[in-house]
Design goal:
about 190 residues, alpha/beta, Rossmann fold, four-stranded parallel sheet, 11 helices, about 5% strand
Length: about 190
């Protein structure tokens, strides 16, 4: 049985973090999942902050994400939403999708919105993106480093080194993961 994680929109919003998380998912270390609704939340958040981007450009990003990770889209979770109770009712669709997908982990920057007392009985854990990447690093550091090199080499405007990408990821909250990766790169 595959280890299944559900990405919340909060971890897909920052571009560098999204890129790394999608690349890690494509390495077949785990099965990443999300929904069209989660992608819509991500797009909406980006458009509110980035007037230089268009919905069409971000739809292309969503399409590329969906192509990069096999079997990533969760559907059929909607009937579960009403019966769920979370501190923020707007997050119930995320938990419903995790339940429907059989996810063991929800990767989110909003840990307070997914309390242990609600998730534990469901066999689901909420993890910060930093904690999650550290866990994946423990699982297979070679593939994480490989994904990071691929990410850096794909950035051309402007070009970025692995260290540049690590600094960006660190600024986006992957502090412990960036520190552990640096120790592996020396």
């Amino acid at each position: 049985m595959a280890f299944i994680v559900l990405y919340d929109a909060s971890v897909l919003y920052p571009a560098a973090m999204r890129d790394l998380l999608v690349r890690l998912a494509s390495k077949d270390l785990f099965q990443a999942k999300w929904t069209e609704e989660i992608l819509e939340e991500m797009v909406g958040a980006i458009l509110r902050q980035r007037a230089d981007l268009t919905a069409e450009q971000l739809q292309r990003t969503c399409d590329l994400m969906n192509e990069a990770v096999r079997d990533c889209l969760v559907s059929g979770y909607e009937p579960l939403v009403e019966g769920l109770h979370l501190p923020d009712a707007d997050d119930r669709h995320v938990l419903a999708a995790a339940i429907r997908a059989g996810a063991q982990v929800i990767v989110t920057s909003n840990l307070k919105d997914f309390p242990e007392d609600v998730l534990d009985p469901l066999g689901i854990e909420a993890q910060s993106p930093d904690e999650f990447v550290v866990s994946v690093l423990d699982l297979n550091e070679t593939r994480v480093i490989e994904a990071l090199h691929e990410q850096a080499s794909s950035l051309r405007n402007p070009p970025q080194s692995v260290e540049d990408v690590l600094r960006t990821l660190e600024n986006q909250g992957l502090v412990r993961a960036a520190a552990e990766i640096r120790t592996l790169l020396v």
